[in-house]
Amino acid sequence: MNISARKSYTVLFLLLVFSSIAITSCRRRHVSEREREETKRKAEVTKAKALISSIKGIHYTEVKRTFDNGLSFSPVGYQLIPEWRISFPSDDSVNIYSPKKNKFLNTPVVFDHDSIYNVAWAWLKLKYIKKDSIQFMVLHVDGRVISDEKVHAYMTFYTNDYIKNTLHSDTANFWKPSRRDTDYITKKSLAANKTLDSAFAGTTPPSLKAKTPLITVKKEIVHDGDVNGGMLFDNYLSPTYNITIHHAYTDFYYSYTAFLDDKGKITFRKSMVPLNYLSKEGADAYIAAMKGITDGYLKLYLEVTPAITLGIPHSSIIFLNVTGTKK
Which of 105, 156, 183, 232 has the largest count of CB atoms under 10 Å? Predict the structure, then answer.
């Protein structure tokens, strides 16, 4: 073997040796990282179960549910309502009261990571456990991925013993709206009653009743567990009314939204049907027809009670499906 060949062989041998060392080192590093992660995960699970075990058997009642700003109302009028009553009989289950079934149901508690639990099919992040209270932050999870929401909701619980024997109170007192909530809704109502574009949903939705047999009104009701995915709060956030006008000037059907002010006056807002496929003249005629139906029929034929929140009447938005028939 000549000198050149011998040098090439030596270089190749050294490359193989170093590659083998690098691969072995990389494998060890990956194994070490996996071991560290697994050790960390096991430690988190142990800590999470210990936290739940520390409050095992203690009965809690939710006393407050608020957004980041401490209010229980959102800008659109959605109200957070505290309603949970819970206890943890073990570190992997929870008893939660069902008002619908009038009894406690036992459901699993699953720890995920970073103080995040799945409790009664809701994803919650444990914020703190104190002597007489606990608090969770409600998480928005889609496909096991936590959404980075700008607004969060917080659930605060007191022990039943603390409520009864230390505070000498009951749940009903805690569930009353706070002074901040009342001030907030008062200001929002003043703004909405001054400017219709500031209208918001009332927790007591508007009431539309027929004043004459020439019109019939039926409010759509969303039931708990609706197969279409509706939520009970849709009943006041999106109050929808199916209206039929008998002996109308012609047969028609229009779907649109309207403002309803604090005095019960209805004002056309906008079509629920896209009008971009129409010419400008066609769209203008379509809108004019809906305004005419609102002013010519609804204002005359309906007895209206406005939306109310915390006892305050205010302007809101209603959804209308209006059918006219010449019969």
Answer: 156
CATH number of residue 95's parent domain: 2.40.128
User: pTM of the full predicted structure?
Assistant: 0.80
Q: What is the pLDDT of residues 69-85, one digit of tens each?
A: 999 999 999 999 998 89
For 29, the 3-state DSSP assignment is helix
Has residue 267 got a pLDDT over 80? yes
Domain that holds residue 4: 1-51
Q: Are residues 36 and 148 in the same domain?
A: no
Classify residue 181: in a domain, yes or no.
no
Calculate mean pLDDT across residues 186-204.
97
Average pLDDT over residues 127-154: 76
Residues 45, 63 within the same domain: no
Same domain flag for 142 and 256:
no
Mean pLDDT of the chain: 85
Same domain, 99 and 157: yes
Q: Mean pLDDT over residues 38-59, rounded? A: 74
How many domains is the chain partitioned into structurally? Answer: 3
Residues 37, 155 share a domain: no
**pLDDT score of 6:** 55
